[in-house]
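Retry 2 of 3 after timeout on previous attempt. Resubmitting structure tokens to design endpoint.
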């Protein structure tokens, strides 16, 4: 995904945010399929840091971006001012738990009117032939990510419309070149202050995984958003911005 969906104008009122489009998306060049790895993304992130002339920096990572941030910070701890890890996890399918949790959450939403189309999007995702068809499928799957899409559709549809995917680097995480993976043994290398932000109803990276990250990073704490799923920055924007501001004020 490009960073378009992640734009946070409310947070931009208080901080300078630099949004990164991962290699293979947006206007960047593309690699061969097997080269899209966590370490490659982390290396690119560090290259951006250097290009901006920053010896150390704060990094906010959402979902897979949070996984990349964990890899970057644990391999380059001297470059980290701090981390904001949003809706992320330190592991994927080392025991199939991640997949089972996701499937259970989806089944719990089976009475929703949009459910058949969202489930069918999985097949469409596998059958995607180009960026446009891939993005269309991802946008339908995105409905699972909200705690109350049905009741707040008018709020969330404009966000979903900003989802902009690239087919070539995309791999289902359990089958990707880095999976299964478990970053927990390396989290103790991260010495910088870390705020972990998680939605109570996140179908991918819920409170259990947030707590695992907290246990691994000494100077970290968790903020849980009770009315959010995978997108707390959108579902509870005011509370999200307040949590980030309070944390950064305490760690200037």
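Retry 2 succeeded. Sequence:
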């Amino acid at each position: 995904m490009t960073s378009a969906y992640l734009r946070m104008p409310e947070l931009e009122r208080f901080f300078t945010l630099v949004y990164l489009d991962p290699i293979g998306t947006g206007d960047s060049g593309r690699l061969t399929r097997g080269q899209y790895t966590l370490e490659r993304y982390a290396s690119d992130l560090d290259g951006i840091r250097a290009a901006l002339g920053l010896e150390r920096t704060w990094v906010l990572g959402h979902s897979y971006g949070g996984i990349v941030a964990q890899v970057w910070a644990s391999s380059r701890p001297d470059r980290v001012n701090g981390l904001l890890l949003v809706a992320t996890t330190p592991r994927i399918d080392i025991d199939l738990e991640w997949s089972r949790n996701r499937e259970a959450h989806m089944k719990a939403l089976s009475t929703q009117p949009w459910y058949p189309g969202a489930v069918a999007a999985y097949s469409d995702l596998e059958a995607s032939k180009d960026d446009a068809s891939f993005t269309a499928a991802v946008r339908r799957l995105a409905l699972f990510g909200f705690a109350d899409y049905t009741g707040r559709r008018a709020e969330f549809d404009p966000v979903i419309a900003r989802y902009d995917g690239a087919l070539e680097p995309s791999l289902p995480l359990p089958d990707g070149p880095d999976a299964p993976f478990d970053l927990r043994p390396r989290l103790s290398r991260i010495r910088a202050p870390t705020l972990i932000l998680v939605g109570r109803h996140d179908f991918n990276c819920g409170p259990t995984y947030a707590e695992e990250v907290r246990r691994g990073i000494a100077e970290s704490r968790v903020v849980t958003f009770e009315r959010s799923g995978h997108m707390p920055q959108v579902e509870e924007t005011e509370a999200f911005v307040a949590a980030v501001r309070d944390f950064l004020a305490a760690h200037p």
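Attempt log closed. The CA atoms of residues 61 and 193 lie 14 Å apart.
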